């Protein structure tokens, strides 16, 4: 099961790379792979989701990315996972809310790496649009995840 | 309601680029940083072509008509090239893979 989720996450990530959609904010992406991660949080154990995310990040970076992209993905993915686990435990947050928090956290994690790499105060001016972008993409992915969840749960119950 | 706020948010995202940066007015100096240290600075008043050649890659900046932009770069995503022309204080062009930051400042 984890293998299926991990491969799906990798495929989604790769597909996203193939279609370059121009965003106003540099480095912004839809984060379609997070769709798999968010869904996974609701049907698998947290350790399994963490493993899936890690495997996806490592393999994607080595297959399609660079050393730098690996660190960005790792920072974003790790922070995103931790934040999503925490938010999921809070009452009143649906899958959409969890996804939004994950998207924002992902961008902040990536931004932190960029800020450390580029030691210039001015990079912080990119933070507000990044956060807004993370919210929007997280929202979109969250809506997709919550739509897919019933089908995924049903499919998994057959096992 | 949700649709309206979504549209508003998307508009805000695209508009932020203009609201956030450049409220301090037009600048006069371009400062180029590589790896966090100052590489060179040029006045916006003189047209110039500046090549930044590093181990990580090559960036070509162009000062033209009081504005600076990234004419070419050999980084994979070309995000710096897409950042357009800047001339207002605190506006920046950033090439992340090459660690190049181009910043507009008020005075030397």
Structural features:
heterodimer; A: mainly alpha; 0% strand; B: alpha+beta; three-stranded antiparallel sheet; 1 helix; 18% helix; globular
Description:
The complex is a heterodimer of chains A (159) and B (108). Chain A has 159 residues and is mainly alpha-helical. Chain A has helices at 2-18, 33-43, 46-64, 67-89, 95-117, 127-157. In chain A, helix 5 packs across helix 6 (127-157). The radius of gyration of chain A is 15 Å and the shape is globular. Helices cover 18% and strands 42% of the residues of chain B. The longest helix of chain B has 19 residues, at 2-20. Chain A binds chain B through residues 22, 24-27, 66, 68, 114, 117-120, 122-123, 125-126, 128-129, 132-133, 135-136, 139, and chain B through 6, 9-10, 12-14, 16-17, 20-21, 33, 36, 76, 79-80, 82-83, 90, 92, 94, 96-97, 99, 101, 103.
Concise synopsis of the structure shown:
The complex is a heterodimer of chains A (159) and B (108). Chain A is an all-alpha fold.
Interface with most residues: A-B, 23 and 25 residues
Number of discrete helical segments of chain B:
1
Question: How many E strands of chain A?
Answer: 0
Strand content of chain B: 35-45%
Structural class of chain A: mainly alpha
How would you write the strand order of the largest sheet of chain B?
A: 2-1-7-6
Would you list the SSEs of chain B in sequence order as H and E? HEEEEEEE
- Helix percent of chain B reads 10-25%
